[in-house]
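User: Structure tokens for this complex, please. No commentary.
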Amino acid sequence: MTSRLTPYLLIAPLLAFIAVFTYIPILTSANLSFREWDFLTDAKPWVGTENYRLVLSSSEFWNSVKVTAIFALISVPLRLVLAIAIASYLVREALPQRLLRGALFLPSVTSTVAIAVVFSWLFATDYGVINAALAWFGLPKVYWLQDPQLALWVIILVNTWKQLGYDIVIYIAGLQAISPDLYDAADVDGGKRFHVFRRVTVPLVMPTTYFLLVISVIEAFQVFTVVDVMTRGGPAGATDMVVNLLYRIGFTLFDIGQGSAIAVLLFILLIALAVFKARVLGRKVHYEA
Amino acid sequence: MFDTLKIAAATSLLALAASAASAETTVEFWHSFSGDSGEVLDGIVAEFEAANPGIDIDAQHIGNYNDIVTKLQAAIPARRAPDAVIMEVTRYGLFADRGVLTDLTAYLEADPLKDELFDFAREVGIYQGKNFIVPFNSSTPVLYVNTKIFADAGMEEIPSLTTFDEILSAAQTVQAELGEAGISGIAAPGQFARWGLIMANDSDLIDSVSGEILIDAPNTVEAYQWMASLVHEHGVASVDGVTKENNGRDAFLAGKVGMMMNSTGNYRRSKTALGDDLLVLPMPCNKACAAPIGGAGIGILSTSEQEVKDAAYKFISFAAGAESNAKWFAGTGYMPINKNTKDQPVAAEALEGEPGISVAIEQLSVARGRPRPPVVTWMRASEYDKWQAMALGQRDVTETLSDFATQTRAEEARTN
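Assistant:
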């Protein structure tokens, strides 16, 4: 009897942790999405699907979905391509590579708020270093954070800079797991460097790529801090991500019901994306060489 | 063995009794002051604690007024709200309306402080006939001028800066003469100054008496059109101050901007940054002479225990007293709220030696409190994005304000 219970007892603390910090909040959020609440009173009257109707009929919500999708479509491939390219160079165990790995990983462990504050000063139109450098070359000033066409690119750049180090480290681990014999065999067969990379490296790091794809898509749909500090969703909604809208409606406009409805819709969207990726890409991932 | 246990038990009981005798009432107090203002507040807290050995004020800097509102929202349902909190004068109505704040009327009625407070200071704390906050830092926006920049732009003598046209003209002169050196004519107005400029154009966002929403009133639209034109049409205010409101103030403090309209609470840091180059003038009177009364007061959360509420009120009363208020006024530039403040040596010295510090006080004759129904909190939080779109020329001012007024009326119907 005791031996049958042991596995359950061993995982019980972790299950309790996940229940308290993940499942209970998800269920609470789902419950609140059908209620009206402003945080300040105990009364939370049931309003049925009214919050969903308001969210789904709001142009702000659809704009935020569009902006977040564009952000994910650009930033995820960009991160993965840059990460595998840089990791291929840094995979060697030499001093310069080790130093560069540390340097590139540093933004991943730096406060996102601090990064966003520094970049918002760098990209300031009249007082920023980047425009000062452009002016030095005789170029006109650029409205980095005020031009709706440019602001999202700045956010993508900053987010890529922040996250790239993590992707690189994961790719390095994936690359190091590839047997050198396969490269030797490709070399004997006269494979050129690019072809070896395409035909040997890329297929063999597919599990890593798939893992990073799943993680980075989720991250892309949950991006918040960089946007909140640098643009607060502006200009004119050009960088208004789903989570920023959720925060604004729930925490600054006191409508936790609609905020929760957005959270539930985002959750469903991420689940759908995960299933789609598993169906379409999961089959192409091979975990053994 | 038994004796040893008895001695140990007796010692424990004695220690327990001693600790109970010296037990302090702790008041958790959330505020919004850092830097120089934070230091002045720390001094007031220290003096209070020295005078009241049984009370410990756990003062915590939370962030700006918006941050406090956001954190309170999370803390209240979590039963982790503080005992006392600084609340901006237009945003406490929602919390009073929902029963989150304690009615302080009985405390104030029994406190000699009641007769010491200026009328305007008492008024800002009243919501629906009851006192919910006691003012601590009161302000009006004022016009700060960097006289060195004006002189460098050829305006040795400061021109009249009373109407919108006069301000624009001076800003254009600064921009034309010094723009290439990275100097802007004027800082894009922050939300408090925007409200002041709307009042100076003989309008309001919400009528403080009737509660009517005036966001799309012709004079409000006209004021916004003028403010937005400073940025996107005339280019005399930096766009950086639109996307980040504090950037305009920071640039002014760094000597990169000719004029700034901002709270008198920025007086001390402006004086420290610019020294004798700083000139403080009243807000413009474009179609009317009027200015909003801003700042914040301290409220007590209704969830606190009675003993803690009593201790919190004692601190609030101390902080609004003439001696503390004089130190606060001289150290920050916020207006005196206590009639006896001016008689305190530190305040008298500031008033005599620094003419700029008294501009906000002189402006009080035309200043008025603003409405504070629950919808104001929503309106102020929503206004930033509308202003950004208008100032950057991305949305038409009339259309934006018409939409905003409609949304605000709908929100008012939902929340009130």
